[in-house]
Amino acid sequence: MTSKQLIQRTKSLITTETLKKDFLSLGLKRGEVAMVHSSLRSLGWVAGGEIAVVQALMEAVTNEGTIVMPAQTTHNTDPQYWQHPPVPEDWWPGIRYMMPAYLPDITPTLGMGRIAETFRTFPDVKRSPHPSSSFTAWGKHADLIITDHSLDFAFGEQSPLARLYELDGYVLFIGTDYSTCTAMHLGEFRSNDGRNSFKQGSAMMENGERVWKTYQELEESSELFNEIGSSFEKKGEVINGKVAQSTCKLIKIRPLVDFTSRYFNNLSTQ
Asked: Which of 88, 119, 162, 262 has its CA 20 to 30 A from that of 53?
């Protein structure tokens, strides 16, 4: 969609103030903790674009709350697993040897969208140290959420997701669906469905030097997340609403993670 088409389908001017009002009406209150998954174009044409969206989120929760976004860098992983697109096998050793190290202040996100990438660059936004599956956070609980992010099992008990669960935070979808819901990976991790772990690798800094570091990850089933989310919504624990022209959902993380874990456990016994 071109900018002209986006303007033509936008019904009225969207600004930081109108977005803030809509976020508050949806239920994102002062002091809340929320992980945000977003599509900028779903909102319509926004004066100030992604910067206005980030500012509206921050103003809605204030510095008494916390905003978190995924900041993954999946291009900094072992090329043997790349599928979209794959690279020739004879390139793999060179990629492992030459891939620039993950640098939290510099390395851009990949596939997270313009809002998440812009959020990464805002003052006082902090980023976790994981070289491929990092998170960014701003606000009262930012340090608690991003500190001590384990290299092994990036979505497990020593991860920002587990801290969000402990804080009884929310997931906010802005024009996205459950396929983007990183929090559901914590439910996968906590299930006892017998899934396998595998060895992953990334370039990172260690003791001041660039190294290729290997670590353990768990097989994922995110292709089932929309199916799981649809079942979860039958429980009636989802706030649906509109922000600007975007269809949005606001969901407590704890019940969603717990439901996801039970869902995978049930699948394993069928």
From this structure: 162
Largest Cα span, the chain: 54
93 belongs to a structural domain:
no
Do residues 113 and 36 make contact, with C-beta atoms less than 8 angstroms apart?
A: no
Query: What single DSSP character describes residue 27?
Result: T
Residue 253: inside a domain = yes
- Report the domain count for the chain: 1
Q: What's the mean pLDDT when you consider all of the chain?
A: 95
State the Cα–Cα distance between residues 232 and 240, nearest whole angstrom: 13
Query: pLDDT by residue (tens digit) across 243-261?
Result: 999 999 999 999 999 999 9
Q: Which of 152, 194, 154, 186 is nearest to 169 (CA)?
A: 186
- Domain range for 20 is 3-74+109-196+221-269
Does residue 158 form part of some domain?
Answer: yes
Residue 104 lies in a domain: no
pTM of the model as a whole: 0.94
> Residue 127 and residue 68: Cα distance in Å, rounded?
10
214-240 in b/e form (b: 16+ CB < 10 A) is ebebbeebeebbeebbeebeeeeebee
pLDDT tens digits, one per residue of 35-84: 999 999 999 999 999 999 999 999 999 999 999 999 999 999 999 999 98
Say how many C-beta atoms besides its own lie within 10 A of residue 268's C-beta: 12
